[in-house]
Every structure is written in C-alpha cells, then in structure tokens.
Amino acid sequence: MRIPTAEFYDELQKIYQYFNKELFENELPNCLITVQRKKRVMGYFSPDRWVDDKENKIHELALNPSYFASCNFIEVFQTIVHEMCHLWQHEKGKPSRRTYHNKEWSLKMESIGLIPSTTGRPGGKKTGQQMNDYPQKGGQFETICIQLFKDGLFVKWFDRFPDEKIGINFTQDNLEDIEELEENLSNDDILESLYTTVATVVKDIVPIEEVKLMNVSKQKTKYMCPGCLAALWGRANLDIKCNSCDIDFEVVE
Fold first, then answer.
1. What are phi and psi of 31, to 5 degrees?
2. Neighbours of 187 (CB within 10 A)
3. CB contact at 8 A, 33 and 8
4. Which of 16, 61, 174, 225 has the highest local Cβ count within 10 Å?
C-alpha cells in the first residue's frame, strides 16, 4: 500500500542528499523541505525558520507544487538546487538583503552548471531581485540530473490543478507512464525526457483553461435589491427575493 506523504517527502530528501553530495561536497546541513503555494515563486529558502522541542533551529527549503505540472522535469531539480545555493551562501558566504541574488550566489550557481538569468535564457542579467536560471548544456548539473533520472529519483506526485496565472498551456498526449521513463533509455533520451513538460507525460493533469473556468465558477456574485438596496454575495445564478420589498434581487455587474 502506497503512503503518499512518506513517498513524496522521502523522494525529495533523497534528491536533496544526492545534490548535496555531488554539487556541494556534503557541505550543506539537512533542512526541512516543505511544499508551499506561495504566489509567483517556484521555491524559496528561509534560514532558521523551524525549531524543535530542544530549541534546535533548522532552515526551510520550500517548493511550490502549483508549478510542478506546468514546467519541465528538470526545472523541479533547478528549483531545489537554486534554493540550495541560497542555503550554501547563508552557511558559507555573505548573502545580501533578503531575496536578493548577488554576485557570490551567481558565481556559485555557475560553478555547478546552473546559469542565473533574469529571463531564464542566455543573455539575461545574472544578479537581481527576481532571478531564474537555465542548465549549462553538458554541465555538471545537467549530468547529475541524468543520473538522478536513471536512478528513478524525481518527483512522482503532482498537483492536478496548476496555477492559472502561470500561463503555460499544455496538451495531454497520453505518453508512457512516468514510472517507465527511466527504463532502458540512453542519455540523449533521458535529456529529452528531462526537458519535457510534466503535463504532457502525467495523465489527469487538468488543463489550465479548465482551471480558469473552475476558478470563475467559484467567484462570488454580488446581488442587490432594487428597492431597499440591500446587498449580498453568493454563488452565480441564485434565485433570491428581498422579503422586505418582495422584489427579486438583481445581479450587480
């Protein structure tokens, strides 16, 4: 019997440990990996965020599951390592003000084969408040991601309802099950899989257009009595009457 919580977080911990060993020489302490739906970010690092009953403090590395289905498999790895570089800088370097990506952080990213860029593509600025990144082709990070995929280490649970504001549309092509991706594939095949959008492989991810329609249906509609101007909010298409005026409420646009 599958235990989703244990499976999900155990996988993330193994991925973290793998990157820690291969990219950071096991310099990084363990942290508390969490899943948070924080708007407009794929992940974040928060130092000394947690404390236990013995007053031991520990850092938090958070991932936003709303992005998982709409990005490529390798982008989940990128998010983890991006935040691990913030953790490295907190432990070993000199971080700037909160959330700022400075030159020291940028150079560390480049040294492991993950290139900082404000646009997420070549040519973008390498320091700043909002920062994306892309893998160096054939670099250390990309090579390790290939090995992770070969070992079957990647996130296997995905939020079925991606954030509609991400703006990435996809189709479900009913490709092979995700569990079969790592079997009998060459490095080139694995790279192709790593750069494949999750939602084109994983079945039953809800298309963003449907998510938008669902969110519209959940929005409250304002109704007002034309007589006494009493107002209320409720779901769409309610058939309601004002008891005082004996008049039907009207929708306020």
1. -130, 175
2. 13
3. no
4. 61
- Please name the residue ranges forming H helices in 112-241: 140-150, 187-194, 208-218
- CA separation for the pair 33, 38 (Å, rounded): 14
C-alpha to C-alpha distance for 31 and 57, rounded to whole angstroms: 10
CB-based contact 116:133 (threshold 8 Å): yes
Phi and psi at 225, nearest 5°, equal -80, 125
pLDDT tens digits, one per residue of 92-148: 999 988 778 999 999 999 999 999 999 999 999 999 998 999 999 999 999 999 999
- 194-224 pLDDT, tens digit per residue, is 999 888 888 788 775 665 555 555 567 888 8
User: What does the pLDDT average to over 5-19?
Assistant: 97
Q: 90 with 58: CB under 8 angstroms? A: no
